[in-house]
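During the second year of the project, the team shifted from modelling isolated chains to modelling whole assemblies. The rationale, set out in the original proposal, was that interfaces cannot be judged from single-chain predictions alone. As a representative example for this report, we include one of the complexes processed in the last quarter. Its constituent sequences, exactly as entered into the pipeline, are reproduced here:
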Amino acid sequence: MSDDTKIPDMAAGASAQVSAVLGRIKGKFGNSGIIIHTHSMHGDDTVVVQAEDILEIMEFLRNDDELMFDMMMDLTVVDYLGNQGIWSYLKGLKARFEVVYHLYSIEKNHRVRIKVPISEDNCFINSVTRIWAGANWFEREAWDLYGIIFRGHPDLRRILLYEDFKGHPLRKDFSKTDRQPLIGPKN
Amino acid sequence: MTDSSRDYDFYVESHTEPMVINMGPSHPATHGTVKFLLGLDGETIKDIDVEIGYLHRGFEKECEAQLWNGVFPYTDRLDYTASALNNIGYALAVEKLIGIEVPERCKYIRVIIGELARMSGHYTNLGASALELGALTAFIYFVEARELVWDIIESVCGARLTHNYVRIGGVISDLPDGFRENVTSVFRTNRGLWADFNKLLTKNRIFLDRMRDTGAISSDDAIEWGFTGPCLRACGVGYDVRKANPYLIYDQLDFEIPVGETGDNFDRYLVRMEELNQSMRIVEQCLERIPGGPINVDNPQWRQPSKDDIFTEMESMIFHFKNAIEGVKVPAGEAYQAVEGANGEVGFYLVSNGGGKPVKCRVRPPCFPMTSALPLIIKGSLLADLIPTFDMINLIGGECDR
Amino acid sequence: MGIAEMIETIVKIGFIIGLTIGFFAPMLAWVERKQSAVMQDRIGANRADFFGFTVIGLLHSLADAIKLIFKEDFIPRGAERALHTLAPVIAVIPSLIAFAVIPFGGKYTLWGHEVNLVIADLDVGVLYVFAISSLATYGVVIAGWASNNNWSLLGGLRASAQMFSYEVAMGLTVIGLIMFYQSLSMVDIVAKQDNFFHWGIIWHWPAFVLFLACAVAENKRVPFDAPEAEAELVAGYFTEYSGMKFVMFWTAEFIEMVTIAGLCVALFFGGHHVPFITDAELAGGFSFLGPNVSNLVAMLIGVGVFIFKLVALLILQMTIRWTMPRFRYDQIMKLGWKMILPLSLTWIFIVGVGILTGVMPSP
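Output from the structure prediction step:
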């Protein structure tokens, strides 16, 4: 584990020993440099991984007999613009965004959070739609609202907003008061 | 529309000239919140594209501009048929982030209100799906039941639809006098209405024909597509957050999780019907066991103290001022808290930088991944099957589009 | 045709039109509202008032009429204007003229003039009804096609398939009845039901159930309202209709309900006959009033009984409508072709055997 000094409330929720899920993941990827950081804040096991290796680790999480994360509960992005101080590793990576996956295993009844830091200049990440089909719309939403491009996604269109929307509204530098150009009927 | 990327192979396969038709957003079945672009061969759906976002209001963007306590009214409008459940989910997530636990009585109150809200959500869903199959009478029966449930909720928090009842570290008010008698009498009426509804539909041959074997999904597919809640349980997977990761006092309560077999619309319907009974059981148990005591965390830093304290105690007044102006200072960090909503797992993922406003307030909408699986479920079936399937997936615009 | 006959016919036509359009169409709208309200624990429409008198919600039909007359008559762009306008007329006319052969009373001699309470006593009355009611299909199909709307088109297609299919089944359901009464004339059939034990419902109740199902399907009401299923097809074939044209479809539906009820009364429920009392006995009971007045009283009682039975059957139809969910389109077709058709053929066979063996004594 890297230094957790910037996380003030670490002691509140985290248990002293590493949980089984984290232990298994670290045991597999501990030395490969894929894992940037792990913690279990408030009992939520979290693994921060390199964007390049996302498919490898996700496939392992899905298919491993001890983990069996068969359900992708949630996928979202956090824009840490101006808030990079929350996580010490973010500054070193010069990452602005973090793609956050919440996985759940029906069989084993455990959860894990996978976080993938992404820098602003390189808003790319591999799509996990071929591992969990349900990731499709979540990734479209992340593209729509944050402008993260998911490589290999079958149909990366805007989903909540309309096609002609300018910008990605959940980015911190998108002002709430911004106006959109008026668009007329298409036909 | 960028249709060029879409797959229109069905032009070749069809034995007739296909009809491309827009179903929604202004269509009685889509409630103004979703659009289906259908490719029909006769009445068979060969191609479907689901477009959502008509009710997108920028939930997350608004939340990021609000103080922590100011987010509650926005969560009301997620699943507006069961808004207290969203309140509870958000409050639990913030409390997890802070590291506080609410008093015992508050937990019971939250469970009671949450289950009443779940009942209201199920009444709406079941009634509306009956309505859309043409059974208006059954719909009105459940609307009446829902009104009675709303009357109870109104007596507690003054609101019927958007409850805005829960706060960080507590709830806004205690249960009123005579609450238990009120609930008992309403439940008696509602059990009668439930029986009427059941008689009208559950063994009705027409209803069976419409619901059975339509919109089925296998349990493997359901898990892969992220189904939760009644739709997943209808497939035979007994996953319920209340049992799997109990929160509040659900681990102390005696209730069952109804599980279906085939995953078709009829099983979804049966699961929801049974969950209504289970919710009533939970509320009755809670009312029997509910302890006395405070309903709020006794710490003015997190929960606004009573007006008496604010006007008489220096410290309370300071915290009241600070919390009202700057917001509750939630410690920096992140937390994900899942609760069982009416539709499935409602998960709140919050990130705080130690300030008075959330950096990120993400809600996992249960009907969003289920709606994304709609093309998988519905392709190849008839246009008329889209109606019960869509109803049973229960797309709530406020929750799906946020 | 003498002047007297002409006046008599005009009066009878006026009576029927007044009964259907003037009385039953608005009354049914009210009954539908109030009955559904009673069934659903509601109060129902009660707000429209005239100087403070609400008349238990009856004024709503009047208010509706006024509102709908003044509504914009909207023809969508790309619609076939002429056919779009013609379609509601085609829909409403057949349901009105089908009533011509349904006797609403018996034959009475009043002041030396014989009054037959049916507009047209056709020898082939039953066939006439089926022939005319199948014409209503054209109105629906044309409406669906001329609206230039995909939902309307789908509704029109569903309606045409459904109505043609059930036409066949409906015709077959009454074949047994025709064999039993040995007549195609409605007047004859009613006349032969003067004995309560000769009523159609006594001998042919399976045919009645099948006939009613077919008739409701013909009329496209719940549970057979797939052509206008509001959750699927918006409003089906009349999606693009507004104002009075919409009212005409709506009226056609109500009149058709009355026609169906009238047919059922005439074929199965003994027409104007009071159970266990023949017309002659009824008139005889009032003989102290003199022959003419007693006949008049008997005639009025007969018409009253007819209307009473009519209303009872209308309420039955309403109850069905407010109880059932809707069939799926293919299930309707399946029911028609695979259930009702074989069953009615079977019933024809059973009636045939019954008549041959004398178990079913033909009156």
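Residues 135-146 of chain A form the longest helix (12 residues). The first strand of chain A starts at residue 35 and ends at 39.
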